[in-house]
Write a structure and sequence with these properties.
about 325 residues, alpha+beta, about 25% helix, about 35% strand, globular
């Protein structure tokens, strides 16, 4: 593997990042009431992708990324892949749709989180071996180690492992992240084990965060922070915003690196649905009330709360207590 150093977390210079972080901290609002925030145990759920070639995409996430097929319905044109009982990627066959343009809003990447460096290395080794041309970069982000790929239909994929939270640093309420060199070959040599390679599909993994391409960061902040209830963890001026619940480095991110000025999405291949999981029904109800207060239109059947962000990215929030 050749490190192309094409990481996603920063595109600005280090000086720009420092200035943006300082400015964001200076602009930070006073502590927000708990009623205005998502629950601290909020997590991301499976990401749905609309795909043109269901078989090829299923094979990529199964054989290369090393997810297990949890369900497959050829008649319905739907595959669910994940680890254990945890869905990670849902593929929906939509061959009638076109690919979105490179500067449109939508998915930047789905980030799959592994529990150990050995588990991460096994998946990275598999993708690099089976689809070497899909590797786009790697980086040490201080809070995590990450490897980036592009699936056969152009959807970004991040595979990563988190350092323990005790090793993270925070400055003025902003988590310290960077883009440091991470040699992929050295990482694999140090961490690939026969045990991890043999048991990939049975080892735990989950969606750690979802990164979107959006038209502008101010609108993203207004929606995802002020209305939805995430907290800002880092902001790089008008270029990128990172948000989370419960002090995670980020559950979601939005950037304008390729999509500045993008408007509402048209129905296309690529991102179909982002899922967020809150701990219980009370949390789901509180979110529904908060969105209604802000005038956000929702679809609510009592178990699933659905709505669209300003670019028509579809979001669904479920309560884990009801088997979402």
């Amino acid at each position: 593997m050749t490190d192309s150093s094409s990481s996603d977390e920063t595109r600005a210079s280090s000086a720009d990042r420092d200035a943006a972080r300082t400015n964001a901290a200076d602009r930070a609002a006073p502590d927000r009431a708990a009623a205005d925030l998502l629950a601290v145990d909020t997590a991301m759920g499976a990401v749905t992708l609309r795909v043109a070639d269901l078989d090829a995409m299923t094979a990529y996430y199964r054989d290369a990324v090393t997810l297990a097929v949890l369900s497959h319905d050829a008649t319905a044109g739907r595959s669910v892949l994940g680890r254990g009982a945890t869905p990670i990627v849902v593929l929906e066959h939509a061959p009638e749709l076109r690919h979105a343009g490179p500067r449109e809003a939508g998915l930047f990447h789905t980030a799959i989180l592994f529990e150990t460096e050995a588990d991460l290395a096994a998946s990275v080794y598999s993708v690099a071996s089976r689809h070497p041309g899909s590797f786009t970069g790697s980086a040490d982000h201080l809070v995590s180690k990450a490897f980036y790929f592009t699936d056969p239909e152009g959807n970004g994929v991040e595979l990563y492992w988190d350092r323990d939270r005790t090793a993270w640093s925070w400055t003025h309420g902003q988590v310290d992240m960077a883009t440091l060199a991470l040699d992929p070959n050295a990482f694999l040599q140090q961490n690939v084990t026969e045990e991890a390679l043999a048991g990939t599909a049975s080892r735990p993994a989950s969606v750690g965060h979802v990164h979107l391409s959006v038209g502008d960061v101010d609108s993203a902040h207004r929606f995802y922070v002020e209305q939805l209830g995430f907290e800002t963890t880092t902001r790089f001026g008008p270029q990128a915003l990172f948000v989370s619940a419960g002090g995670y480095h980020h559950h979601m991110a939005m950037n304008t690196w390729q999509s500045a000025g993008a408007g509402r999405r048209q129905l296309a291949l690529g991102l179909g649905l982002v899922r967020i999981e809150v701990p219980g029904l009370d949390d789901l109800g509180a979110l529904g009330e908060r969105l209604a207060h802000h005038g956000v239109a929702t679809r609510d059947d009592g178990r699933v709360l659905g709505f669209d962000d300003p670019w028509l990215n579809q979001i669904e929030v479920t309560a884990r207590a009801v088997g979402a």
